[in-house]
Design goal:
Layout lengths: L8 H6 L3 E6 L4 H17 L3 E7 L16 E4 L12 H22 L3 E5 L5 H8 L3 E5 L3 H12 L9 E3 L9 E3 L12 H11 L2 E4 L3 H14 L4 E3 L3 H4 L17 H11 L6 E4 L9 H14 L2 E6 L13 H4 L4 E5 L4 H6 L3 E6 L3 H10 L3 E3 L6 H12 L2 E3 L18 H12 L6 H17 L5 H19 L4
Parallel strand pairs: 1-2, 1-4, 2-3, 4-5, 5-8, 8-9, 10-11, 10-13, 11-12, 13-14, 14-15
Antiparallel strand pairs: 6-7
Bound molecules: uridine-5'-diphosphate.
The site of uridine-5'-diphosphate (UDP) has 20 residues, from helix 2, helix 12 and helix 13.
Length: 473
């Protein structure tokens, strides 16, 4: 969709300013897509006033860009970073979010609310206020429907080695139980999510039909009254901006530009990007092994090491000098979209977060998967076994969503996987080709007239109708 220029100034002046509250979860991988989505809404409907309801720590990320600013309201909550992402801290933050958000909604009485699916209690609050509630999901429809099936099958981690999903379209999905998220252990959680999904006016999913069509269809049938597949918003919204480096409050800093300048010196498709999203951190021993594996692979690499990983004891002696001509380490936050769009990037070693998968897919970059937690192993199943644009970095040892159960991935495995994957016309050339074919599919979905943009228009018209007619369902 292009910004709506068909409205005259007097049209705009006579329009009611609809007030919509957006309530993201505090994690960056949830907040940034909602901020990008807010930008898309504003570009298309300047008569809607959007307010992001965030924690104080997140105000700097609440605007997708200065081009389409939103209002900001905060509720009290301690900072949540990768290091503090332990269950007790998250539980406390979720509790504070519920109290703070409820208070703000009651005080300001917006015309509608769009909230992260991780806040299932929001549907009841919206129903009390008699306003439409739309949920926003940053999860693949594949992982949502697979988890729902496992939940219905009463799969409990620990009882079996492997489980097979029953009743889904596409190839058979069989997974080791260790790779399923601990959320399946919790009695009511998935049921609560499922119920709030069906209670809500509809669900917006940051995904694209071109990537997971049959699972979008399944999601539409089983998970929501109305479903809108508008993604990948982290790719489509930045297209409106001057620079894809300047996103979500990130400063266009020297280090961010220097990694792009370094990529300029490398050959086409010759560099492996190594980055594991915004939440998961590695133990020092694993970082050390990864550093040695990257060195032994003899490949060019750009490695993003998070602030939370930075004690530096993982750096092997003399390593920085030895890899200086073919390795570049970014400390902290990297401009991932701009890096993936660079012609020098030939592969992406990643954790299978859904945003990163979509960003790689849009850029036509094949993935080497190293899932770590949450629903990442389920996403891996989709990209490796269903779609075929990725390969597993390690099939061997014990992999698990739980930190205490996983084995260290040895340097030899990492080195071998990387060099095999990067071999020109090697055994993974079909994976590379498949990934390249996906680029245009995803980019056409977010171009004018594409499936994601049509779903965005349908959502906007349904939302305006619902606010006009005060329908909650
Ligand atoms: N990201 C980034 N720079 C970084 C790390 C992450 O821009 O250094 C962005 C990445 O482009 C993606 C998001 O943060 O949009 C991470 O989301 P994802 O779903 O992949 O992973 P999670 O953070 O949930 O593990």
């Amino acid at each position: 969709a292009s910004p709506n220029n068909s409205l005259t100034n007097s049209d705009k002046a006579n329009m009611k300013k609809w007030r919509v509250f957006l309530v993201p979860l505090f994690a960056r991988s949830h907040l940034s897509p909602l901020a990008d989505f807010a930008g898309l809404l504003l570009a298309n409907r300047p008569d809607v006033e959007l307010t992001m309801v965030v924690t104080p720590d997140n105000t700097k990320f609440a605007n997708g860009s200065a081009l389409h600013p939103v209002q900001i309201l905060t509720y009290p909550c301690p900072p949540i970073g990768p290091k503090s992402a332990e269950p007790s801290v998250i539980d406390k933050a979720l509790h504070m979010a519920r109290q703070g958000v409820e208070q703000l909604l009651q005080q300001h009485k917006p015309d509608a609310v769009i909230a992260d699916v991780m806040f299932p209690w929001i549907t009841a609050i919206a129903a009390d206020l008699k306003i439409p509630c739309i949920l926003f999901s940053v999860f693949s429809t594949f992982s949502t429907v697979v988890l729902d099936c496992f939940h219905k099958m009463r799969v409990r981690p620990g009882l079996l080695d492997h489980v097979t999903v029953l009743g889904l379209p596409g190839p058979e999905i069989r997974m080791p139980v260790l790779e399923l998220p601990p959320i399946l252990l919790e009695d009511n959680t998935i049921e609560k999510f499922h119920k709030s999904g069906l209670d809500a006016f509809g669900i917006v999913v940051n995904t694209c039909r071109g990537i997971e069509l049959e699972y979008c269809d399944e999601f539409e049938k089983t998970q929501a009254r109305r479903a809108y597949f508008v993604g990948p918003v982290t790719v489509s919204y930045p297209m409106y901006q001057r620079s894809i480096i300047e996103r979500g409050g990130e400063v266009e800093g020297e280090s961010e530009n220097s990694c792009l300048r370094w990529l300029d010196t490398k050959n086409e498709r010759s560099v492996v990007l190594v980055s594991f999203g915004s939440m998961c951190v590695f133990k020092s021993a694993q970082l050390h092994e990864l550093a040695m594996g990257l060195e032994e692979s003899r490949q060019n690499f750009l490695w993003v090491v998070k602030d939370a990983d930075q004690s530096d004891e993982w750096i092997p002696e003399g390593w920085e000098e030895r890899i200086a001509d073919r390795g570049f380490v970014v400390r902290g936050w990297a401009p991932q979209l701009a890096i993936l769009a660079h012609v020098a990037i030939g592969a992406f070693v990643m954790q299978c977060g859904w945003n990163s998968i979509q960003e790689a897919t849009a850029a036509g970059v094949p993935m080497l998967t190293w899932p770590l937690a949450y629903e990442q192993f389920i996403n891996e199943k989709l990209v490796v076994d269903v779609i075929g644009c990725a390969a597993r970095l390690w099939e061997g040892g014990k992999r698990s969503t739980r930190e205490t159960e996983k084995e260290l991935v040895p340097r030899t495995v990492i080195a071998h996987a990387l060099s095999r994957f990067m071999e020109p016309e090697g055994e993974f050339s079909s994976v590379h080709r498949k990934a390249q074919e996906f680029g245009p599919v995803v980019r056409s979905a977010i171009a004018d007239g594409g499936s994601s943009m049509s779903d965005l228009s349908r959502l906007i018209s349904d939302l305006i109708n619902a606010m006009e007619n005060k329908t909650c369902q």
